[in-house]
Amino acid sequence: MVNAFWLDRDLDRAAAWLVDAHVTSSVFECSMALTTAVQLNGYPRDDNLYFTHASHPLVRWAADARGNWRYLRAYVAAAHEEWRYRWDHGPEERHACWATVESLDAEAVRALDWPSADASDPPQLTGGWTADDYVDAYRYYYANEKRHLFGWSKDRSEPPWIAEYTVDPADGDRDYPSR
Questions:
Q1: For the chain, how big is the Rg over CA atoms in Å?
Q2: What is the DSSP letter of 155?
Q3: Does the predicted model carry a pTM greater than 0.90?
């Protein structure tokens, strides 16, 4: 599944809180979402660019407004820096998927006919976990549905908000988002 994990509005902090598996998958999957989104808006098709999951909600959101695309790009840039940090990649090393995003002609991307002028909040691709705020929805999703992936390398550790967002199924009257 293609997903960005919006665990904080500070994207560097969000990337630092990603479990190891999501650092790499965020760079890989979201880079593909970015290149697909620009092609949906008229960027020239090229065999060197990824085009996949064109109907996926994250791809559709990124394709809807340049501001959305730029926010997802900033998320991937932060995840890429985290990838370098956690696995000791040097400053000259680039994940191949991120290199593909960086190969896009910035002026051509800027000049595309984006369907909407206004950026919007990212879609909540959080299973049944929803909240008024997308960061809250992703934190509930992470704390409750992604525990089996918990593992952080180097000096990264479990985010401080995990306990606050963990829902005990036995606590039926606790106020939490719908799921």
A1: 17
A2: T
A3: yes
